[in-house]
Structure formats: structure tokens, C-alpha cells
Amino acid sequence: MEYTVSITGPTPLPARNITWFRMEVLGVDGETFQVNVTVRNVNGTYSSSVWHFNFTKGETQGWVIIPAKLGVGCTFYDAAKSGNVTIEGQEQKTVAGATRTITNASDSKRLIKEWDMDSGVYTYSLEKPKNFTVITSAVATNMWAPDVLEPNQTGLETQFAIAMLVAVLVLFSAIVVVRKRGLNLSSILKRRIRSLTIVLTILLLCGALFLIYVFQSKITMSFHEINLYMQTIWCALLILSMWFRAKGRYLLHGIFWTVVVTITLVNFAAVLLMTPPSNSSMEIFFTSPAYAAEFISHAILSFPALILGVWFIALWRPNSTAFVAKTKRIAPVTAILWVLSYIAGVLGYIALYTPYFG
């Protein structure tokens, strides 16, 4: 099982330098078994150690692996607590690409710990040992197959390739028809450039998300790392858009602006659909002052930037001379808010997921 890890709080460097780790069962010897744990540090180096488990003696290594098939009300022995731990809840969740029966329990240090019921291996945890917070999520495993089985992924890839080929052929055919009828292709494209930009951006984003889904088991970066890289690209494109505006190249200015805002809106909508906000998910953002500051600063800066960005797209007319005057204030204010939001995100990432702020 592979996990992403985020650790926040004023902890020493050795306790804050893990961003990802993998557990691999080495072998079983009677009542005991060994697990090789490999971790990836912030600086990119890897290290590993062997953990020993024995359920009879209560050696669960902080509830990392517990006896399998335990439902609500069942217990397991924890030597560290010198007592039994009771399973408190059970629900169906999607973990590492498959729908699994997930159980959970908690205590004063572990705000919640979740396990795959069939295997007993933990899949998620929100823990607060001492004065810091640790959030761990399972992202990949070979213990079960994803709901879209590996053989079918080839079929999905083929379908995706066919769909893209059909889209290209339709576009090519449309261009041929327009030219045969003697229509001004440049004029048509300019009138429809805003709609075409939005549609093509969504199609390309869907294609990228599909590829990420297909190759998710090979991606070792955490969600937070991926998000940081992507937000850096979007912010750079928005700044490039403002450079085009300063040079009087308003068509490219509008295209790049529309691409950035469209991608951001689609990403935001996808996150809301896949992981709708709940009381438990919102509580995570307030488990430490750093989390709260990051969440609030993004809310204050990002939402106005998005609203103004959509307003800009609504006003954009490639052939309109009034467009520049109408967006004279909107464009720079939006760009400033966007950059400030990005800076807040970078500082939040450094504070939450790196040791540089102590």
C-alpha cells in the first residue's frame, strides 16, 4: 500500500520530512509478520525499515495493520494502550480506485483511523500526536484491483484515442466545408474564438485527467505537490496573458486568460463533485493555525479573482474595440488577486509540507 503524508505543526525536522511512504508485507512466520516501510523525504531521498507485527501480543504499530474482517463493535488488542480498541464505524468508500468496506476507530491521539475491512490495512488517518497534525491517505495498492480493471484500461485508452481522432476529423471536415463554400474562415474563427477556446480547453483537460487516472499507480507525487505545480503553470500563463495585453496583442491576451480561468473552474467543480464538503472534511482546515490561515487567505483572494475572471470572459469580444476599455480595471485587479492567491498558496505549502518554517 502506498500513501501520501502531510505533517503540520512546530515539530523537529526528522518528524516533518516525510511526504510519501509504501508498506510491503515481507513474510509471515506463525503469529508474526514483517512489513518493509519505505519513506520519501522532502529532499527526495528514500529510506526504509522493517516493522514487526503480532496481533496476539497487540503489536499493531499504532493501528497501522489490525486483524481483518472486524466489523462495528468488534475489538482488537493494542499493547501500547494495554487494552482493547473497538471498531466504531463502517461505510463504503473509494480507496485506490476501488469501492471498499472501510471501518474506523479513534482515541485521544488518533482523531480518526480507517482500515480496509477485508485486509485490516489502514487507508486513512487524521492524528494529532503532541502538538502537530498528521494526515495520511492511501493512494495505490496491489491488494485489490481498481473498479476499472487493468485489462479494460487498454479498451478505455483505445476509446479515448478514437474519440480524439473523430474530433480531429470533424474539425478538418468543417474547415474543408467552410472553404468550399467560400466563407471567410478567419472571420468565423474570430467570432467563435471564445467558445472554441473554452471547449478545446475542457477537452484537453479531460484528456489530461484521463491519462492521470490511467497512470495513477505510477504517480508518486502527492496531491499537494501536483496542485502546486499546476497552479504555478496557471499563474505563469495569466502573467503571460497580461504581457500580451501590454504589447497590444489582445487576441492572445483573451485566449490565455480564458484557458486559465476555464481550467481553474473545471478543476474546482471536479473537486467539489468528487469530494463534497462535509463537517469532517472542513475540520481538517482548522486543525492548526497554518491550515486555517491558508484556507482563509485562499478564500478571500481566490473567489473574487475567479468571479472577475469570469466577468472578463463575458466581456471579451475579439473583434470589439470597446473590450480593452471595459476591462481596463478588471484585468489588472484580477491578475493581482490571482498572483496574491498563488503566493499565499506557496507560503501555505511551505509552512504545511516542508520544514523551512521550523
What structural keywords apply?
358 residues; alpha+beta; 2 domains; nine-stranded antiparallel β-sheet; 9 helices; 49% helix; 23% strand
Question: How would you portray this structure in words?
Answer:
- It contains 9 helices and 11 strands.
- The two termini are 30 Å apart.
- The model is unreliable at 149-153 (pLDDT under 50).
- It is of the alpha+beta class and 358 residues long.
- The chain is elongated and about 80 Å long.
- The longest helix is centred in the middle third of the chain and has 31 residues, at 150-180.
- It has 2 domains: 2-140; 219-353.
Strand and helix layout:
Layout: E1 2-8, H1 13-16, E2 18-29, E3 32-41, E4 46-54, E5 75-78, E6 83-86, E7 89-95, E8 98-105, E9 110-116, E10 122-127, E11 133-140, H2 150-180, H3 185-214, H4 223-246, H5 250-274, H6 279-284, H7 289-315, H8 322-326, H9 330-353
Antiparallel strand pairs: 1-2, 1-11, 2-3, 3-4, 5-6, 7-8, 8-9, 9-10, 10-11
Q: What is the total number of structural domains?
A: 2
Oligomeric description of these chains: single chain
Q: Report the principal-axis shape.
A: elongated
Low-confidence stretches: 149-153
Listing every helix as H and every strand as E from the N terminus to the C terminus, the arrangement reads EHEEEEEEEEEEHHHHHHHH
Strand content is 15-25%
Helix and strand content put the structural class at alpha+beta
- Determine the fraction of residues in helical runs and give it as a percent range: 40-55%
Q: How many strands, which pairing sense, and closed or not: the largest β-sheet?
A: 9 strands, antiparallel
